[in-house]
Amino acid sequence: MTGPRKSAVTGWPVTHSRSPLIHGYWLKKHGLEGSYDRCGVEPEAAEAFYRSLPEHGLVGCNVTVPHKETAAKACVHLDDAAKAMGAANTLWLNDAGELCGANTDGLGFLGNLDQQHPGWDNRHDEAIVLGAGGAARAIVWALLERKFSYVRIFNRTFEKAQIIADEFGAGSIAHPWDELGSYLGKADLLVNTTALGMSGKDPLQIDLANLPRKALVTDIVYVPLETDLLRAARERGNPTVDGLGMLLHQAAPGFEKWFGVLPEVDDELRALVVKDLGVQA
Ligand code: ATR
Questions:
Q1: Count of CB atoms situated within 10 Å of the CB of 13
Q2: What is the pLDDT of residues 5-48, one digit of tens each?
Q3: Are residues 170 and 259 in the same domain?
Q4: Distance 237 CA to ligand 1 centre (A)
Q5: Nearest C-alpha to atom 28 of ligand 1 is from which residue?
Q6: CB of 196 closer than 6 A to ligand 1?
Q7: Most CB atoms within 10 A, among 71, 124, 143, 215?
Q8: How far is CA 121 from its chain centroid?
Q9: How many domains is the chain partitioned into structurally?
């Protein structure tokens, strides 16, 4: 392919994705000529689309809901995270023109905590993960990579937590939601991966009374930036990290694959996305 390199966020729908803003910022910052757009791909067309990225003028792409599993199936090579999750969110072509896929959601989660709260994983005995969707799967993977001894998954639908625990094996344990109170007392980290607490959704109602004050609390919801969970945790003295950085950090590896520069998640980028989301910083 000749001309400036092009990438895009693909999914169905992709209208609300902030990825063009993030990659557009990095392209400008590094003075690169490439472009990054939105590209809606209907579900029936998804697999064929990912198998023929160059025909669509793309050197790679991001993949969002509902195509992450289809994208992984279309790949010739997957990184360890995408293999473990059976889902890819970042695609590129290697020198032989073969389709490669990575799942950077877990790395984005880790990158955010590393940047916002360095040393957060010095204590890595027990983590509690609320929820058992795609984001939970990525975060359980990430926490096991960081050698947490126990990653306890609590979900409204217990069976979904059990499926993730069975997949990841030793260290990941599924629990019914109503057992949460008995396990909070030992947690070093509490992560909300459910949609609860997001603007327009039901609140997340949990009693933090048993949670040790040194436990780090984080949420993948970033609208609002400080969720009720994070506010309640902060007010009782727990360290907290909001979820916006996960969105920013998960984008960086793809940018490097497509445009050849590993970009930084800096304050200016964060401020730009905060402004676009219309959330209170
Ligand atoms: P994602 O892929 O972004 O993680 P998802 O797969 O839709 O999104 O998962 C959403 C998570 O939020 C699930 O764990 C879901 O619980 P169920 O598995 O029981 O559906 C959780 N969730 C959503 N609404 C909820 C609610 N009202 N009460 C409790 N949990 C809820």
A1: 12
A2: 999 999 999 988 999 999 999 999 999 999 999 999 999 999 99
A3: no
A4: 27
A5: 156
A6: yes
A7: 71
A8: 18
A9: 2
